[in-house]
Amino acid sequence: MSDRSLALVRMLAASLCVVTLAVLHLSLARAEDSDKTLLLVAKRALKDPLYSSTILLAKPMPNGAHVGFILNRPTTLKLGEMFPEHEPSKKIADPLFLGGPADVNLVFAVVAGHDRSRDDGSRDDSLLLTPELSLAYSGGTVDRIIESESDRARFFVGLVVWRPGQLDDELKRGLWHVKEPEAKLVLRKETDGLWDELVRESEIKSDMI
Question: Which of 7, 9, 64, 66 is the most buried (most CB within 10 A)?
Answer without folding.
Answer: 66
